[in-house]
Amino acid sequence: MNDSPSPASLRIDAPDAAAIEEFRESILAKLVYQVGGRPERASPRDWFIATALAARDHIVDDWRRTNDQTRAEDRKGVCYLSMEFLIGRLLTDALGNLGLTETARQALAGLGVDLDAVAGQEADAALGNGGLGRLAACFMESMASIGVPAYGYGIRYENGLFRQIIAGGLQHEVPEDWLALGNPWEFERSSLVYEIRFGGHVRSEVSVDGSTRMVWHAGEIVNALAYDTPVVGWRGKRINTLRLWSARATDPLHLSEFNRGDHVGAQAARMRAEAISRVLYPGDETEAGQELRLRQEYFFASASLQDIIRRHLSRHAGLGNLADRVAVQLNDTHPAIGVAELMRLLMDVHGMDWDAAWAVTQATFSYTNHTLLPEALETWPVPMMERLLPRHMQIIYLINARHLDTARARGAGDALLSSVSLIDERHGRRVRMGHLAFVGSHRINGVSALHSQLMRDTVFADLNQVCGDRITNKTNGITFRRWLHRANPGLTHLLTDTIGPELLDDPERLEHLVPLAEDAGFRQRFAAQRRAAKERLTGVIATRIGLKVDPDALFDVQIKRIHEYKRQLLNVVQTVALYNAMRARPTGHWIPRVKIFAGKAAPSYHQAKLIIRLTNDVAATINEDPTLRGTLKVAFLPNYNVSLAEMIIPAADLSEQISTAGLEASGTGNMKLALNGALTIGTLDGANVEIDERVGRDNIFIFGLTAAEVAERKRAGFDARLAVAASPELRGALDAIASGVFSPGEPDRYRGLVESLLHDDRYLVTADFDAYHARQRDVATCWSKPESWWRSAVLNTAHVSWFSSDRTIRDYAEDIWKVTPR
Hints:
- The protein is α/β, with parallel strands linked by helices.
- Helices cover 48% and strands 16% of the residues.
- It contains 33 helices and 24 strands.
- α2 (44-73) packs across α3 (91-98) and α22 crosses α31.
- The longest helix is centred in the N-terminal third of the chain and has 30 residues, at 44-73.
- The model is unreliable at 4-11 (pLDDT under 50).
- It is an enzyme of class 2 (transferase).
């Protein structure tokens, strides 16, 4: 089945016959001369490559114009350093932003080819794990759309986030080889190669002028080769660049060893070097895995900074004004080693003294924090850092010494000094990368109002006190062009027909929908486009997992990375409680409901993988129970990625955003779902707080403990057993899970899971269960009153225009980067 998001395009372009014919001829030329195919024998993949190359020709001239104009004007630009760019498929984005969708559709139709089938042939560029990478992709598109000169820098992983296969309810990981059939969007820049050094030793050497400088004699050198992908802004206003680095060995083959018969050993250096860009997030349970992660992070940070300096020096005589011409954003802690690397480059390579280099470094960098979870704030063992990056450890020690001297001079005592030190002495001496990013940046931002305040109050409270108030908030956003225009053209046609095509350029016009929430005819049309999207999703569910579901049922959706704090377990336990109630009262007035789950667990995250298995076991039991008469169905859709999200989000009725309050930094899935008219059930966590403020408490289902109440429960000590004893529904659900109702072949399969919940419910699943269960009953009541439900759905779409990533980028540009969009 074709998994492209929609059978119809958003017709923002009105091509004439000449434009259609010209594009058709271009596609045919690409098919023949670059793909090497024949129209009568071409496969859908051949047509995709030919169409992408034809579209790319339209991009390249504007890309060159953009770059020439930026150089001529010498405008300040942004460099966005991110370990992840979850860009997904690009053909529909490129055609849509260029206004060529309908041109391409009609050009292909004249050849007997369907554009949606062609678009479905594109591999998802799964260069990210979830929200972090998808945010980076949205930000790149928004910077191009509002006119901010930008480069995105990351790694060209040969295998992106693993492809998830569910067999016997278990997650299995296989490589996601997205480059296997080629990538028509990228341009290899063979002249852009930088040396990345590892290991070796550092010596103090006297220069010709008598000055002393530190010289790093590396034990290993790896080359970083650039691949560029154009990022097309809305209506082709600007074309920015995503530059991804691929690792190459400096000497790919030791010929003498090969000729001696050691065919494998002769390629060992090449394999070690190229492993750096082989896989996104290699497992880090072993020391070797941790070392590879660190090598990846330094590899792309160093290559990116060398490239930034090269481009700056091509236009300026020195590096003293670097921060005036470029702003470098660290997207989480992964590129934080860049702080020490820029210091090394400025001092050791370009001859700056410490004070000048530090001033430039702090003025250049800013840092986005994405998590309050201690385990996600990266730290690296000092011995590993000293072995892999000896010069950087020297620099980090010096940064730390000066940082602590300043704090001590301001009256900091030993406890505060220990808290703000870049070296954590409590756990075997580790470098705190979040601290390094904080100290080395002039601005630090959280990604929702609640998250930023919690940063000030908790994990970075002491640093913020010592360094001066550097923390600001920049609530995340999403690009409406992908998550509304392209993902949900049915709804977009309805909106543009009703409130005008100006909506495509101005998301704030969504507020014009507010009075239409009282219009019964509009509500019916709004509901009708949702049902059409649900019918498409039912086909995907049937194809992927063989489950037939009712498109008239409530589609209750939780789609995100599988993690205990995101509390998929709370959803599953409540599903069991609902199942128990429906079996106990089979003649009750139950609304038809389809519970839809999707998400991947990290390969080494065993508890998350057990939750996936439980979800599938619960699904198998419920879906096969004839007493329910199809009223409740559970679907776990494997291999969640951007393209699958584009299918699910337009079809969702209820958006599950149920993380433990205070732990979700922001969330962007909540924004995408609300934009498409789904009602949120959620805690007051992350951006849910701001969604609640904008859509109104009557149009959202808020439940559970607040962040302050969660903190208090944890301080006081929470006993899950008391919560279970006080809740018959919760007790019944956990007993069913623990006793093997959903795993009859292995009755004790989930006993340990339940026991761990009872003894250490760190994410307060049991504490919030009753409130969540009650709000789910409120959801059912509201769903049974269509007038009320669809009024709230319209108001959700109407009130979320503020969550556009264009707004977010304008906030960054004004407050942090000091860049003027145009």
